TrEMBL record:
One Pfam family it belongs to: DUF3105
Protein name: DUF3105 domain-containing protein
InterPro entries in the cross-refs: DUF3105
Keyword Calcium found: no
TM annotation in the entry: 32-53
Stretches with biased composition (Low complexity): 1-13
Disordered: region residues: 1-24
The organism's taxonomic lineage, starting at the top: Bacteria, Bacillati, Actinomycetota, Actinomycetes, Kitasatosporales
Length: 220
């Protein structure tokens, strides 16, 4: 009798211990599953965030050059005015402009210094266009321009705030003046149209951001 009771107690104890081991194993499996699931969710959120940021960045960089549309219309005064849309997005990539030199469109977020700055080498279009947005006039020339005229123009630019000057070999004419949305050809520093253009377009009515800085930007 006593032996049977002891045997029953031992069996019950063994079953209880087995149930406890099974419960502990189940708890371990549940904890592992929870950890793995959480890791997968976090990884998915991180990847999704990266994709979203990259997508937004790509949208920003692709926002520009193809959206500038229109054409030049030449006025009686010889000034060519861009009739159409000139976009103003800040982009980090290079921009393909529909005119040379460009008179507007998407541009780099950093402007070229344009406080009477004269550059001996070609400058990035994307930075120069930002200067035009600030109301600057950009004087450009090719190797076909008379050197005396180039030197005289450089002296004029140095004395005129909100102007800059640089070579642009790809342009059609030897000497050109550009402002935001406007452009003309001149013959040299003594051409009266130079002073007229500067008087009209340096911080003129066409300026998208009047009063914006022409210093503290990019210098060659």
């Amino acid at each position: 009798m006593g032996s049977a009771k002891k045997s029953s107690t031992a069996a019950r104890t063994a079953r209880i211990e087995e149930m406890r081991r099974a419960e502990r194993a189940r708890d371990r499996r549940n904890r592992i599953l929870t950890i793995v699931t959480s890791a997968v969710v976090v990884a998915g959120l991180v990847v999704g965030g990266v994709v979203l940021v990259q997508s937004q960045s790509d949208d920003s960089d692709s926002a520009g050059d193809s959206k500038t549309t229109g054409k030049f219309v030449t006025g009686a005064d010889g000034v060519r005015t861009w009739q159409g849309k000139l976009t103003q997005n800040h982009v980090s990539k290079s921009v393909s402009y529909p005119m040379v030199p460009p008179v507007g469109g998407d541009h780099n977020q950093v402007w070229m210094n344009c406080n009477g700055d004269v550059y001996a080498k070609e400058i990035p279009n994307e930075n120069a266009v930002h200067s035009l947005e600030h109301g600057a006039v950009w004087v450009t020339y090719t190797s076909k321009a008379d050197q005396a005229a180039v030197d005289a123009l450089a002296e004029k630019v140095k004395k005129t705030p909100y102007t800059l000057m640089s070579p642009v070999e790809q342009q059609k004419n030897p000497i050109m003046l550009s402002a935001w949305g406007h452009q003309r050809t001149v013959t040299g520093a003594d051409d009266p149209n130079v002073d007229k253009f500067l008087a009209t377009y340096v911080q003129g009515k066409q300026t998208p951001e009047p009063g914006a800085a022409c210093t503290g930007g990019l210098a060659q």
